[in-house]
Every structure is written in C-alpha cells, then in structure tokens.
C-alpha cells in the first residue's frame, strides 16, 4: 500500500527551525503557516519581496515568541535561488538568528516559459539562444539549496536530532508532461538529485540527513492558471495548496522517511519510490533487474566517483587497484596486508620450524589481502 497519511500536531515541530525558499506565495506560503502552527520558527526566502513582507507581517501578527528575548517566529529575506551568494546569505541569516537550522525546503519554482521546440522555428530563429531560466530556478536552485543545506544542517545539532531536506518536484518529475519540455527536465532533475543523495547523505558516517521529494499534481495556485478551467470541466481532482503543505509538514515531521517521493492528487498522497524498487523485476524483467542490482551493490554509496585521483608512483609490483578506488578501501588493503604478514610470521615462529616461515608468510599475505580489500 503506497498511501501516505501525514501525521502532524500542534507541537510536532516545536522550536525546530525550518528554512523555506519560495515561501512567499502558493504552497510555500501555506507551508510557512503550517510550520508556525506546529511550533517551528521559519526563515522565508523568496524573490517576491512584496508578498514576502506581507506574509511576514501576518506571521508576526499571529505568532509570537514564547519569551520576550527570543527572536521572532518568522524572518524573511529577498532571495534569488539562482544566485549562490543570495542563497548563502539566507542560510547565514537563519543561522545567525536561530543558531541552527533543522529542516530546509526548496519550494521555489516556475513553469514553462515559451516553447523551446516550437515547430514553426526557422533556421534564423534557432540561432538565438533560448532562455534557461526554468532550469535555473527549478533545478540549479534546488541544487544550490541542497548543497548549502547539507553543510548548515550538520551544525549545532544535539544528539539524535533529526534533520532533513525536502525538495519540490512534481508529477512531471516522474510522468511525461507534453509541452512542459524544460520544466519536465528540471523536475526529473530534482527527483534525480534526491535519488542520488538519499543513500549518501543519510549515512550516519556522513551527513546523517534525510532527503525527500513532494510531487504535487494540479494545485490551485498561480502556477496552474492556464489549465485550471479545463481541469475543473473534466472534473479531475485538484489539490489546495494547504493540502500539499500538510503532506510536506508531515514528511518534515516523520523521522522514518528518507528517499521518498510523495505524489499528491486531490489532497491524497501516495509514495512512489518503494514500489518502483520493489516491483523492478516485474516492470524491467528479472534478468536485467538482477544485473542492475549487482552493479548497484558494487558501486555501493558511489564513493568511487568522488574519490580524488591519486598520483601513483611507478612500481614494478602491481596490486591491481584501479584509479579512483576510495582511500578507505586502499587503507583496508594495506592494514589487512600488515596484519596478515605479522600473523603469518608469528604463527610460523610459534610453530617453531623454519619451513613454516615461508608458508606462514604466504598465507598471511593472501589472508591479509583478501580480508583487507573489503
Ligand atoms: N501548483 C501546482 O500545481 C504545482 C504542481 C507541481 C509542482 N509544483 C511545485 O511546487 C512548488 C511551489 O509551487 P506553487 O504552485 O506554490 O507556485 P507559486 O508560483 O505560487 O510559488 C512559487 C514561489 O517561488 C518564488 N520564486 C520564483 N522564482 C524564484 C527565485 N529565482 N528565487 C526565489 N524564489 C523564487 C515565487 O516568487 C513564488 O513565491 C514549485 O516548485 C512548483 O514547481 C506546483
């Protein structure tokens, strides 16, 4: 069963600090309100400073700090998610004000601009570089926010504190959406970013953070004005922005969720990643699914891609380590060899025969190499 039912209460985010980009309007603004209602302090970043300041005033009127000397429950800063220093400044403001950040939500987004693939484009038209603003806001913005979040979320955290990143993808992040060419590529990118990070960033030896995505279908905000009437005429379900925000608040609050994509339609939410993985051998076929699994196991957390290339000394002895093998595996090998050799020598001395020495040494090298490479 993939139905997800969010569980939230009036104190589920008590004193948590939530940073939200794209929080001045639509779903983001509803999320700001719900986080405040659940007890969190909220840092809002948005390009739209008029709506942002208006929302901030509303927050200050309705939500007050528990004690007088505490910072305000909400702060706002004009932010452009396509500008790295601007995103950084937002995190600095949140950290300076609240001394820590617990959850980060990347909700800023825009819809398709123009038609990159207009079939009336001429040889002359196609010479003009098209705008890539949609890609910049939706994908690059999410990448900037995630990167900076991955560092800030690790600071000033108490023992066992739960921290997470939540990205706004879309139905277009997993299902084809004709004519939303760049938008769809950007939202697939957002889902891909979450998938590439979910095992890496959640490792207790690394960031120890959760990361999830929300994939709303048609939600009643400015973004869907063009299709709203058609949708209603066809009697298709829509979400209110509040319903989507409730799913988002639930995901922030649920410590068991990592690597999920929540499809939201008609106010209901459905997790899609688990069944995609579980049913892979059915939709892909058993043989290719098995090969995929073996490859994934080999690559594990993928550290092989990011390990720095080391300049290697020329040596007449090759131990067969391919370029890019992570340092811990090489260290494992050398420690294994050291231990294996010393065990082999000790055993042969204890056994007291000279013949046993070369055998012990050879066995030691073999065992050490085999055990150490893991
Ligand atoms: N409304 C829907 O039907 C729907 C469906 C699927 C996904 N989504 C996604 O949900 C998220 C919220 O959408 P919404 O419908 O509430 O949209 P919205 O237009 O109501 O709100 C988006 C907010 O992002 C801000 N923004 C735009 N560019 C920015 C930038 N460069 N830097 C900072 N802020 C910027 C806008 O000012 C606005 O406040 C988006 O990521 C959107 O793609 C919406």
TrEMBL record:
Task: Give yes or no: UniProt keyword Methyltransferase.
Answer: no
Query: What would be one Gene Ontology cellular-component term for the protein?
Result: cytoplasm
Segments traversing the membrane:
none
Keyword annotations for this protein, in alphabetical order, are:
Oxidoreductase
Gene Ontology MF: a single term = oxidoreductase activity, acting on the CH-OH group of donors, NAD or NADP as acceptor
Tagged with keyword Oxidoreductase: yes
**Pfam families noted in UniProt:** adh_short
Q: Known InterPro entries for this protein?
A: NAD(P)-bd_dom_sf (IPR036291), SDR_fam (IPR002347)
Q: Which family does it belong to?
A: Belongs to the short-chain dehydrogenases/reductases (SDR) family.
**What name is this protein filed under?**
Uncharacterized protein
Q: What is the lineage of its organism?
A: Eukaryota, Fungi, Dikarya, Ascomycota, Pezizomycotina
